[in-house]
Amino acid sequence: MPLILVHHTGAKTGRERISPLFYRRSGEGWAVFATHGGSPRDPAWYRNLVANPRTTIETGTEKVTAVARLTEGAERERLWADVTALIPAFAGFQAAAGRQIPVVALERESAR
User: Fold this and answer.
1) Based on the structure, what is the number of domains in the chain?
2) Segments forming the whole domain that contains residue 60
């Protein structure tokens, strides 16, 4: 599974956190999926990125400043279909969670 390290600021604490997240490339950026293993609650990293969308991503030897954006509509459906075709368990996580799994686009700050 390809992983990136996503630095995010705690929504309540203001402290920096780092989460290793599975990703799929999306254009010049990355898409990450807030499955939280099928939990009915969104993961903390997702809540943190919603509150503080500016982030840093480590991918390989590169460190990139990015901005998080919640995908919607056709974009979200395309990314979700792509990831569930690759990892069918993600569809099971959504069913178990009883919520639509958020898909977050991480876009290079320079590309915005």
Assistant:
1) 1
2) 3-111
